[in-house]
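As a warm-up, study this chain.
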Amino acid sequence: MKFTIDRADLLRALNHVHSVVERRNTIPILANVMLRAEKDALALTTTDMDLEIVESVAAKASAIGSTTVPAHTLYDIVRKLGEGASVEFSSAAGDTTLQVKSGKSTFRLGCLSMEDFPKMGSSEKFSYSFSIPAADLRMLVDRTRFAISNEETRYYLNGIYLHAAESEGVAVLRAVATDGHRLARFEMPLPEGAKDMPGVIIPRKAINEIRKLIDEAGDTIEIGLSDNKLKFSFDHITLTTKLIDGTFPDYDRVIPKNNDKVLEVNPALFASAVDRVSTISSEKSRAVKLTLGGKTMTLSANSPDSGSASEEIEIRFNAGPMEIGFNSAYLMDVAKQIEGEGCRISLSDPASPTIIQDVSDNSSLYVLMPMRV
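Now compare it with the structure written out below.
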């Protein structure tokens, strides 16, 4: 195998694929990236056996072939080479090392057999296929992933639940994430080809990896769905992930239907006020109390160690005086997702779930459980 590739192109591809590789691996081959040199392209593949990324990049091969080398080591080497450099890779048949040469620098990397490298999505049959604009997929991920649970015992909450649903008589593609304390829901028009698709839970790691790639994607991302895998394809990149094998809870039951006390506030002012006041709140609870009355809301926090803080901001509120507490980090996570100038907070009482929405955008809905303060 012998090929030459531009350092910038190789670095960009390695930057995409190397983060899939776990730094601590009990299976040596999973620490490697598979390099497959063809006449005009180099295909790079990494996997952790649950997630696989394949990316093709332009290269000039004088001898085609394939091998696997340590992913993080190769990434670090290429990252440290000079800008504008060209990189030459070569290995003889049966050789257990790969030579990497650029300018006056030469490296030899140990290779592991291609036969041991796991293959995930090559023979998979994807029963459903549809496309989503990259901007919509970016919004879907951003509006929901912060609510994914980190509690490994409830593994079925460790991802985003994606499914076809109906909203006010219109077919939608809906994404939901929850950790039991908060819930985020986003919906968009159902893409052609997604009708009757089963509900699937996309793991957190796959969500984070696809989010890194979206910003560099073209206009459209193709999605394929099989019984236990999901595939994202765009440009010269394919990401295939196993799905979480579990049942997502009936999230509709926790979305309150009769919250009639409605508060409207500027989301940017609200988020910055919460951020300032929460500086005082204890690290454990991160609680902030909202005192509502008339045309103002007072945000306050107390800590036995740090003291107290309060700030008053203008609001519109259609009910009488009320006090309610929330986790400040959860409040800020939601407020950051509201891009319009109005944030609507629908309340019932200090102990019941609260709904937060963008006044000018009904595609997203957030539910927060209050705290005792």
